[in-house]
Amino acid sequence: ESIPVITIDGPTASGKGTLAAAVAARLGWHQLDSGMLYRATALAAMRQGVDAGDEAALARVASSLQLRFDGERVLLEGADVATELRFEAVGAMASKIAALPAVRSALNALQLSFRKLPGLVADGRDMGTVIFPAAPLKVFLTASPAQRAERRHKQLISKGISASIADLWADLEARDARDKNRSVAPLKPAEDALLLDNSGLTIDQSVDRVLAWWAERN
Ligand code: C5P
């Protein structure tokens, strides 16, 4: 319980991952990108031909996930899948299976295992509400839909994946709606979360904001 955790939750493409990585680097802490675990489960399920509606089979895939992180590489059963995990089809499948309670609980222990000294920065949808409810600092990050669609577009282009902004926008809205309206662990700020709208901010400004909040708690 004495290992500190900073949670950063928010909608798709709000900049959570970038912010979490930068805050973790500045503090010298570990990082958990929880969306990656849902994406990896989705990818493994797609590869095994598991049906998106077969909750029990999907939960088995989640609990037997052979995942390792090695710098920029994400190894699924030994092979680097970092690029594939970012594919829109994988994200869309992740968003669907993330609504299934058995899949979510199958990933609980794995998520908790990332909490190690000297501290953890965890980003996702339910880090502050469900997985680390006692975290001393919880941030809920938002950004305008236009900015989010544009960021996601740039992110994909930089990885050599093409996509239209209009399609991305529609996809973001569908995913947010699913995340907010599901019955288990819906996307919402924890009661004690601090809200950060990064629309007009640079990454450094957002990082400084979070670090200042952290400093105030110590
Ligand atoms: O954050 P990212 O977009 O990579 O996550 C992929 C999907 O996994 C999201 O669309 C969301 O539905 C789901 N997710 C979740 N809970 C988390 C992290 C991600 O439901 N803590």
TrEMBL record:
Taxonomic classification: Bacteria, Pseudomonadati, Pseudomonadota, Betaproteobacteria, Burkholderiales
Similarity annotation: Belongs to the EPSP synthase family.
Name under which the protein is recorded: Multifunctional fusion protein
Signal peptide segment: none
Domain Cytidylate kinase: start-end pairs: 6-212
UniProt subcellular location: Cytoplasm
Quaternary structure note: Monomer.
Whole-protein coverage range: 447 to 664 of 667
Record-level Gene Ontology MF annotations: 3-phosphoshikimate 1-carboxyvinyltransferase activity; kinase activity
Entry annotated with the keyword Lipid metabolism: no
Job of this protein: Catalyzes the transfer of the enolpyruvyl moiety of phosphoenolpyruvate (PEP) to the 5-hydroxyl of shikimate-3-phosphate (S3P) to produce enolpyruvyl shikimate-3-phosphate and inorganic phosphate.
Residues given in the record as ATP binding sites: 10-18
Keyword check for Nucleotide-binding: yes
Keywords, in A-Z order: Amino-acid biosynthesis, Aromatic amino acid biosynthesis, ATP-binding, Cytoplasm, Kinase, Nucleotide-binding, Transferase
